[in-house]
Structure formats: structure tokens, C-alpha cells
């Protein structure tokens, strides 16, 4: 008896607990893998052929599989208990989780999805490690006197392929003011990496809150980037205007301004609203060449339309809120934005999370998207469908169900599913990683089933 107990407890009580849980997971796999290959009836026939004349294993497998919903719940809880506290996985546990991800039946989707989530999380640095790494980079970018930072030293964060958007907001409220400024700049430069930033400036509000202002150009692929007017009678002037506007430095239609500021709570923002919005009160200074080019190519009416086109973006970060649920926060934000609608329009605000096109009400399609990257989802190409966003575990991937637009009173019969994935630095993707890029679809499919 002692000889059999020693091997079991050679890693202590917790080690024995892990061994028992792993054995349960193996037994779950052993049963459920038998029902993966074909329809249920064919699987039962296959089991009978495999174990005849002894039907006991067949009956045990059938009765066990009949309780698959309860087993799935138990297995999910066991995975959470086993992997929740320890980010690193043993080779034995990794092998079992890999087998769980191969379960392809709809009834096993939650287990397969949870196993894949744990495997993905194990390959990513922990939150604490990434937090410490980001803080180290910020502190190394500050000069020896602590008065300013070197933007060149922040490129590692701006161009990093590791997820940092979940870590970065913490540094908006760092004790060191220079770190707060650097964090805001990294957020803007990383979030607007698809755009061409013309300038970026820091300033402080009267209460010491850091604010960053920036100007940027819409990329040529942006759906809101308007083409050069073709109603120009002089062919030489038309050719000149086309060449001029191909240079992004002379495109008033594509010029945008933005601001980013972080407050501890919503009341701080409402108290400082007038000071924040004042940075949009005056239009940016334009060079004489820029003004002359615009006046030459456009008539007076066109120039007026350009001036009246809202071009400003305001990003607000809040550290704390009275409510944790989105559905309770959105009405509060919407009521405030609509109460300031006239001021926002007068200052040319195009987006303060809520779009001007929606009367400053939220477009839920874009919820939880980085504002600067929303256009890359190319939702304009799905204009023939009424879209509904489906929550997805992978924040780099966005899943939508679209119902074909039909006349009022008619039931839609055409449904499509759209998946959009944001990949950073595509020029750095190797062939090996390109092959791995095929993996997100099963995860998206399982997320969809889980959402339903």
C-alpha cells in the first residue's frame, strides 16, 4: 500500500489533485472522441463492432455521452480551476488541451473554445510581465531629469506585435506625469498607425490633466476619402489638381484633427468639457500654398462645404465608472453628448465615440473597436445587409451576422456571416505564420455558436 501512495503524492497534494483532474479529462476525451467521426447511429454501430460480444463498454460510453452537457460544464470548470492561477502549462496538460480543441461537434464547442483560449493565453506573456515590460520601456524613454521623453525610444511599443492595448490604459494614470504623456502618445500613434500623422502636441488642462492633440491624413483606402472633383474645365488644371491631391500633404478633404485625454471619472470630464473642446474652437493654420491650391481647384461653394465638413475626433478615457455594465453607461454618455450637440457641431466634431451621423448616438457595430481601425473592417461593403455584431473572445477578430435588407413587413431569408480580422505589420508575416493564420476561423465559428 505505501508503495502505491508514494508515486501518487510525489509532487504533493496539489500535484496529486492535478493528476486526478488530468485523468478525468482523459476519460472525457476517451468517450467523446468515439462520437466525433460520424452520425450518432453510425458511431454506436462502430462501437458495437469494436467491443462485441461484450456490450458493457458500449453501454457505458452511450450512457456517459448522454450526459455530455453536464460533462461539458464540469470539464470547463476543471480547466478554469487548473489553469486559472498558473499561466504556464505542463507538456502533459498542453497535449490534453490540444486534443480537446479537436472536438468538432457543436455540443462540444464550449469545451473546445475554452481549451483554445487557455492555449492562446499560455503563449502570450502574462499581464504582469507585459505591464512591467511596458513600464520599463516608458521609464527608459524618460531623460535623466525626468522632464521629457524621447519619442524614438517608444517605437518598440508603437510597432510591437504583442497585445498592449489592455495594459496601456493603466499608464494614463501613472504617478509620473511624463509617463502619462508618453502613454497617451503611444496610444495615438499605435491606434492611428494606418493613418499618416502630421503632427502631435502635448498640453495640460488647468487641473493638470494631460491632453494630446494630433493631426492626421486619411489613407487612400479610406471609404470617406473623397476624390478630386471632375468638374474642372481646364484639362491642364485638372491634371495639376490630380497630381496635387495625390500628395497627401495637400488634401483638405482628407485632413483630420484629434485629441486624446484621460480622466479618472466621468464627472471630471464634464467639469473640464469646455476646456477640452476649446482645442477645436479654432481651425488649424494652413500654409499659403495649401490655401492657394484649395482656392484654385475649388469654387466658393465647394470651399464652404469643405470648411463645414466635421473633421475632428475626440477620444476620452475614463478610469472609473458608477456602473460596470455597458447598457447602463451608454444612456449616460449619450445624454451628455446630445446635450452638447450644438457645441460639438459648431466645433466640427465628427466623432466623440458617438457619430454625428447618428445624431451623436452610438453605432453599436463599432463597439469595442479602436476608433482609428474601425474603417479597416470595410463595413461599407456590406451595405446590403443589416448587421449585428456578435461578441467574440478574440478582440482582434470581429464577427457579424447580416440579414439581407428587405421591404418593411417582409421577413428576411438571406443571412450571411462576416468575419474581419486585423493583422498588424503584414509585411513581417512569414510563411509559417501565414499558415497559422488559418486557425482563427474555427475560433470564430465556436465563438458564434457560443454567442447563439
From TrEMBL:
Q: Which GO terms describe its biological process?
A: fatty acid biosynthetic process
Question: Which Gene Ontology molecular-function terms are recorded?
Answer: acetyl-CoA carboxylase activity; ATP binding
- Mention any Pfam family matching this sequence: ACC_central
What the entry lists under InterPro entries is as follows: ACCA, AcCoA_COase_cen
- Write down any Gene Ontology CC term: mitochondrion
Q: Which residues cross the membrane?
A: none
- Which residue ranges does the record assign to the Acetyl-CoA carboxylase central domain? 5-432
* Protein name per the record: Acetyl-CoA carboxylase central domain-containing protein
Species in which this protein is naturally found:
Bambusicola thoracicus
Q: What is the lineage of its organism?
A: Eukaryota, Metazoa, Chordata, Craniata, Vertebrata
